[in-house]
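SAMPLE LOG
Freezer: B-3
Tube label: C17
Construct: single chain, 249 aa
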Amino acid sequence: MKKLALVAAVLLVVAAVAIFVVGSNIGTIVKKGVETVGPKITGTSITLGGVELSPSSGSGTIKDFVLGNPEGYKSAFAIRLGEATLEVDPRSVLSDKIHIKRVAVSNPEITIEGGLGDNNLKKILANIDAFTASEKSQPATESGSKKKLQVDDFLLSGAKVEVKFSMLGGKGLSVPLPDIHLTNLGASGDGITAGELTKTVFNSVFEQVIPAVTKQLAQIGNLGKGAVEGVGGAVDKATKGLGDLFKKK
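STRUCTURE (predicted):
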């Protein structure tokens, strides 16, 4: 019995050390995971300045997240944020379903480049759609081995969109976005994949960007001649028939 007790004690110590080592490196694990898996989903570069997570509480921050643009676009980034806060259930990190209690993204910068019908954000969304479609076509044995996610609460607030359309003749245009609030993502069943989560969030952003930009462009077009030199006429033409133009599917 003494030997069994000793063995049990040793195993507990080893387990405690393993949990501490993994826990103290959760941020590094998350950063590497995002920078490795993310580009496969979006078809663009993704970089993180760093991830800090408390191994005990699971609370932390994501710093300097930058989502790059597809090839052919000149803007430095599609989405950039200085810092986001999150809270993860630390006990779920090593499980098949990682439980993220909360994500709060504040004041992100979003760049839309190209035109109304064809732009960088639409291209990224198409890449994400293609990735998630390929995920579903994989055998159950492969897809079932991947970690799933659950996000209880996702909030994006204070976002601004920098519009870089040729029709603006080099003029800058900044458009604020309404808050985006999503809840209970992957709460039922086994959860959702990283691709499915990315698709849900990015699609929600895209659906806010297009109407906001369209409304602002229409307002510019209605300002009258000379209000925005070289822009009004082009915007007038571009904002006709937008109901059909912005159909993504």
